[in-house]
Amino acid sequence: MDQIPLSATVDGVSAVCIRDNAFLLVERGREPSKGWLAFPGGRREDGETPQEAAMRELFEETGIIAHEVTYLTTYTFDYSTPEFPSPKAFRLAVFLAHDATGDAVAADDAAAVHWLRADEMAAFDVTESVLEVVHFLARSFES
């Protein structure tokens, strides 16, 4: 996946946290996509780098502290994206959390938290972008 400059323009971020081959997903408590499972994330605040925003959002939604994140990819959502409709293009940068500590609890706008392996996600409403990242990363477990 690509590299992102520290000052890149993105509207939102998400953080991928993995433990024992399970991914931390939050149930979205608000629209858009209320009830869907996604990686913890949200909008960037003024003056924040995408990396800082990813670590902040992970902590705010789950209580998990990431000491470092690395960029994975960026998705653009718009009105044609069924699980995340947006009236204008919304750029979401996805980061992998490293050295994450703490116990996950639902906080902020997360209604619940789940640790799920890739094969367990079919039983839930999980966004296509999350599944794409999960399948990409799960291949590294097999290596």
TrEMBL record:
Official protein name in the record: NUDIX domain-containing protein
Nudix hydrolase domain ranges (all copies): 8-138
GO molecular function: hydrolase activity
Named cofactor requirement(s): Mg(2+)
One Pfam family cited in the UniProt record for this chain: NUDIX
Similarity comment text for this entry: Belongs to the Nudix hydrolase family.
Coiled coil: none
InterPro entries: Nudix_hydrolase, NUDIX_hydrolase-like_dom_sf, NUDIX_hydrolase_CS, NUDIX_hydrolase_dom
Organism: Phyllobacterium pellucidum
CDD domains: NUDIX_ADPRase
Domain of life: Bacteria
Key words, A-Z: Hydrolase
